[in-house]
């Protein structure tokens, strides 16, 4: 049996863990030794729920990042995004050894990563086989986050120069782009060619939707007790607040929109926050709202009539996998990219927020309410979502992905 290290960009969100845990769990069930690295609090709870080993931060301290949050929220593509992450050579020089320690200490036979270039670089430096698991618009051969625009702007910042100065010290050849390191020796794409298109020449394998849910999962009794006489809407904002002050990547606008647009509507609302606290500034929820930190996503998506969310890719996979339509309020360009794909498939609508100088977002409540009514009342949205759900059944999912990772590693 082999030893696998599952890595991902550490962030206090459930999107990447939701994608990677099914593969990790399947590898473990096949008898392999598996550990997952994402020390943020919310992912840690999901990793524990899956019964997987969660690796702590190595002894070497991780440097404090200095992110350009506005650039992260408005990034044209992944390369531009990482320009807002790797903002200095010093950060890369101090952070990369943490990943080298991680891999040396755990000594995996292969690294399986999603969206963490430093983990990928550390695997390359230490000559460990690398498999990457990406959504389409994260892959180097994608059309970027703003795929509907005809030409990439010139002069966009990138972290590649900082990265190249550091990796040269480890004997690695320079990268043309940071994003290129995420094309692994084995490259798996979450989703399908219609949900996550990449260039035809890309050497990738589609694995269908990746959404974690325990086999014995059940909805809380109070969800099943909600009357079916009125439509049930599931509102999922992801992380409402990333810091004590407003930032351009926050998703609290989804909660505010739901309250403003649905409080007096003839619907029932379940609001969940992915193991995040409900911000105190929200105050008392309307009478037709119920809040929970977490519910099993696939079961909740099947139970509700409509999902309102922030456009995260794992949430897109959840809504499409079960065939439930959506109204999406995308909070960064990556999420707008995902949202536009859903709308293009006919499975939902998009309501774009506006952002002010403080970083706070707002929406047109009238537009949002109209979109909710439209998607609830027009059968074509559910029909389109069901069609996509059926098409997704032709892809292998976590079992197929784990088999490919196993064969890739053990057959070398």
Any overview of this molecule?
Helix 12 (333-344) links the parallel strand 12 and strand 13. The chain has helices spanning 15-29, 41-49, 69-74, 78-83, 89-106, 117-125, 160-167, 221-224, 252-262, 297-303, 313-322, 333-344, 365-377, 379-392, 397-410, and strands at residues 3-8, 33-37, 53-54, 110-114, 130-135, 186-190, 205-208, 232-236, 268-272, 289-292, 306-309, 326-328, 348-350, 354-355, 361-362. The protein has 2 domains: 3-209 and 395-410, Rossmann fold, CATH 3.40.50; 221-392, Glycogen Phosphorylase B (Rossmann fold). The chain has 412 residues and is an alpha/beta fold. The protein is globular and about 65 Å long. 38% of the residues lie in helices and 15% in strands. Strands 3-2-1-4-5-6-7 form a 7-stranded parallel β-sheet. A 6-stranded parallel β-sheet has the order 10-9-8-11-12-13, sandwiched between helices. The protein has a two-stranded antiparallel sheet with strand order 14-15. The chain contains 15 helices and 15 strands.
Structural class: alpha/beta
State the CATH topology of the largest domain.
Rossmann fold
What is the count of β-strands? Answer: 15
Look at the structure and give the CATH class of the largest domain: Alpha Beta
Number of domains: 2
**What integer is the average pLDDT?**
96
- Helix fraction, binned, reads 25-40%
The N- and C-terminal alpha carbons lie at a distance of: 13 Å
Order of helices and strands: EHEHEHHHEHEHEEHEHEEHEHEHEEEHHH
Specify the number of helices.
15
What is the gist of this entry?
It is built from 15 helices and 15 strands. With 412 residues, it is α/β, with parallel strands linked by helices. It starts with a strand and ends with a helix.
């Amino acid at each position: 049996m082999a030893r696998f290290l599952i890595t991902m960009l550490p962030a206090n969100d459930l999107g990447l863990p939701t994608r990677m845990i099914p593969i990790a769990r399947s590898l473990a069930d096949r008898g392999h030794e598996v550990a997952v690295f994402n020390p943020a609090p919310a992912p840690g709870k999901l990793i524990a729920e899956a019964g997987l080993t969660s690796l702590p931060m190595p002894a070497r301290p991780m440097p404090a990042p200095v992110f350009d949050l506005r650039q992260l929220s408005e990034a044209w593509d992944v390369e531009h995004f990482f320009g807002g992450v790797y903002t200095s050579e010093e950060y890369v020089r101090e952070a990369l050894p943490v990943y080298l320690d991680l891999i040396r200490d755990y000594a995996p036979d292969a690294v399986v990563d999603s969206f963490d270039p430093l983990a990928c670089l550390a695997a390359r430096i230490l000559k460990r086989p690398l498999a990457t698991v990406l959504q389409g618009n994260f892959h180097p051969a994608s059309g970027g986050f703003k795929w509907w625009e005809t030409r990439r702007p010139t002069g966009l910042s990138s972290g590649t120069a900082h990265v190249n100065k550091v990796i040269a010290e480890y004997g690695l050849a320079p990268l043309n782009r940071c994003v290129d390191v995420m094309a692994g020796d084995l490259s798996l794409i979450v989703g399908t060619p219609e949900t996550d298109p990449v260039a035809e020449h890309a050497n990738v394998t589609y694995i269908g939707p990746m959404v974690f849910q325990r086999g014995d999962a059940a909805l809380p009794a109070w969800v099943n007790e909600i009357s079916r006489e009125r439509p049930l809407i599931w509102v999922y904002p992801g992380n409402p607040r990333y810091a004590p002050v407003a930032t351009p990547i926050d998703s609290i606008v989804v909660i505010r929109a739901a309250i403003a647009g649905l409080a007096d509507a003839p619907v029932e609302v379940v609001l969940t926050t992915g193991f995040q606290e409900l911000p105190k500034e929200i105050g008392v929820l309307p009478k037709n709202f119920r809040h929970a930190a977490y519910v099993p996503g696939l079961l909740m998506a099947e139970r509700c009539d409509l999902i309102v969310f922030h456009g995260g890719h794992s949430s897109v996979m959840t809504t499409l996998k079960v065939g439930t339509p959506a109204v999406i309020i995308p909070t960064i360009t990556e999420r707008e990219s995902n949202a536009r794909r859903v709308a293009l498939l006919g499975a939902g609508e998009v309501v774009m927020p506006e952002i002010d100088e403080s970083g706070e977002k707002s929406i047109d409540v009238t537009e949002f309410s109209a979109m909710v009514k439209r998607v609830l009342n027009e059968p074509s949205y559910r029909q389109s979502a069901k069609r996509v759900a059926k098409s997704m059944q032709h892809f292998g999912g976590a079992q197929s992905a784990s088999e490919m990772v196993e064969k890739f590693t053990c057959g070398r």
